[in-house]
Amino acid sequence: MSRTTAPAPADRKDGANAPAEGLSHGLKQRHLSMIALGGVIGAGLFVGSGAGIAAAGPSIVIAYAISGVLVMLVMRMLGEMSAANPASGSFSVHAERAFGSWAGFTSGWAFWFLLCVAVGLEGIGAAKIMTGWFPGSPEWAWVALFMVVFCATNLAAVKNFGEFEFWFAALKVGAIVLFLGIGVLAIVGVLPGTDAPGTTNLNGDGGFFPHGSEGLIVGLLASVFAYGGLETVTIAAAESEHPVQGVAKAVRTAMWRIALFYIGSMAVIVTLVPWDDKAVVEKGPYVAALDHLGIPAAGQIMNVVVLVALLSAMNANIYGASRMAGSLVARGQGPKALGRLYGGVPRPAVLVSCVVGFGCVLLSYWSPDKAFIWLLNTIGAIILVVWFFIAASQLVLRRRTEREAPEKLVVRMWAFPVLTWVALAGMAAVFVLMAREEGTRVQLYSTGGLTLALAVVGFVRQRTAAARAS
């Protein structure tokens, strides 16, 4: 049997479909919608986007628009596959169905590793804010506190995770909507105490492309990775009341809203504030814009928003990591103990994901210049690897679904297969750009090494299982 004709997980009898059947279904549509919206609204947008603005200037708007189109294509493809076959393993399950267990193993464990490291990074960021408010308190203690809280949240029923994420995401979305509203009022000159800036900051110092195409490329690379996190909604859909309808609606509504938030925010910021203002990087672009408008206590307001964003991301990533690990184990691609369910929750997977995340935090103290930097470089391009698996899997599974069960295509990729190939070409272009830039080249090579190692292990496991079966 060829790798492209392997039976779908739903047809197998080795537990591949267990995650969707054994997990609880406590998430409601409102949870899914807010998870989709809040999943990518994190510190990368509120703070990290400042580096992109400094590199690209006003052209950062174009960078976010280009990467936003790529992300929308990826999410449409993932939405199509997830609506047709909801699974807690999401793209890992789809990759396995399309190419064999090695692909599911590679994409799934790479994503799990990314989420665990991200949990640690978000904990460190949140702890830095808390130590600013409570000088003298140890950072590691705050991280440990956050880990305990969200580990407990994820060990309980999934509806608790859903409620936490609903309110966290609502606060983040509300903050961005309020920011956009204030910014638009200032741009048109109707905000009290402000004058309309016109196009001074857009075509002033250095013009719209102050650093030329190289600056745009750096901004593009920064913006691509800022969109990571949307995948969580397709993982969560398997535990919702109506998985097919839930993921279809969440994907459809989230894509354009997130593009509006990202692209709209960048447009407002570079219109209001000179792109080379040092405060954009030092304080963060949102704080710089609010300070520029004379909004009282802007820094503390945004610190609260960023803290909420970081805690929300911690919560969501612990959830996503545990479900991905549980799904992999249920498909025979990990230690069985890790996938055991207690009350519909893979509690061992939750605990291990939290322990690994906290281990990354400890490495940041024990070996900040070696082991921790290695971790950061290794996860640098994993999200692009995941997107590549998504697009490649959709090329295979769309044809198969059209032949075998066309009624399952409740969400369809636009202009298939043309736009799928366009997305793959876009990802390949990003890989090339990463190889060109000194700052991202090491990330590309480190991620490539991890991906290759996982693929080799996965392929050996697949061949071994096939030999035993024969």
UniProtKB/TrEMBL annotation:
The chain crosses the membrane at residues 34-55, 61-78, 99-120, 140-158, 170-191, 216-238, 258-275, 295-314, 349-366, 372-397, 409-436, 442-460. Gene3D superfamilies: Amino acid/polyamine transporter I. Residues 1-22 are annotated as: Disordered. Pfam families: AA_permease. Residues 31-463 form the Amino acid permease/ SLC12A domain. Keywords: Amino-acid transport, Membrane, Transmembrane, Transmembrane helix, Transport. It comes from the Bacteria. It is a multi-pass membrane protein. It is found in: Membrane. This is Amino acid permease. It comes from Streptomyces litmocidini.
